Amino acid sequence: RARYVKTGRYPYGAAITADGRRGLVSNETDGTVTVVDLARARKVKTIAVGGHLAHPERIVTSGRRAYVAVADRDAVAVLDLRRLRVVRSLSVMEAAGVGANPNGLAVSHDGRRLFVSEGGADTLSVFALPSLKHLGHVPTARYPTDVQTTGGAHPKLLWLAAKGLGTGPNPNGPNPFNSATLDQTDTPTQF
Q: How far apart are CA 122 and CA 48, in angstroms?
């Protein structure tokens, strides 16, 4: 049987806590996260994570924390799942004029790394857990929209890019200095 719970405006991302008792829903327009008691199908609390039109998107939980990608604030909100409040904001801001637009999150299977896909910066930010120290960036293709990890002895990192590989050399493409190669209508694309 389906039950409905009123959240904020334009719900976007969702996650369930490890114990399965609560759900978290990001609300893009309101800049909030709604906490839901899943057994009772009731709203427990609304947590402000960035303000009006901040666009909180993906949410991932790990232990006693949840991480929320807040796209239009170039930040990741860190939530304490016991106290149900923001305890820290991680900046992923880039140089002036370039928005990082964090939009996807993953915690490594060993719980030691947080990966943040940054669509506007074409990178993944990497944070150490639990310290939340920023370790650096991993370059990606154009506009990454999600990131995931595998476990095991040799973990792998997977990211998706919405706009492909971007610009760069195309060894199978046309040669601007040879007019015979400029007609590419019958040539399969490189990618």
A: 27
Comparing CA positions, the residue from 26, 36, 20, 48 lying closest to residue 105 is 26
Question: Can you tell me whether residue 97 is helix, strand or coil?
Answer: coil
The CA–CA distances, whole Å, from 127 to 37, 143, 160 equal: 29, 20, 19
Query: The whole model's pTM is what?
Result: 0.84
Cα separation, 185 vs 165, in Å, equals 21
| Residue 61, strand partner residues | 66
Q: What are phi and psi of 107, to 5 degrees?
A: -110, 135
**Which tens digit of pLDDT belongs to each residue from 126-180?**
999 999 999 999 988 889 999 999 988 888 899 999 887 765 555 555 544 444 5
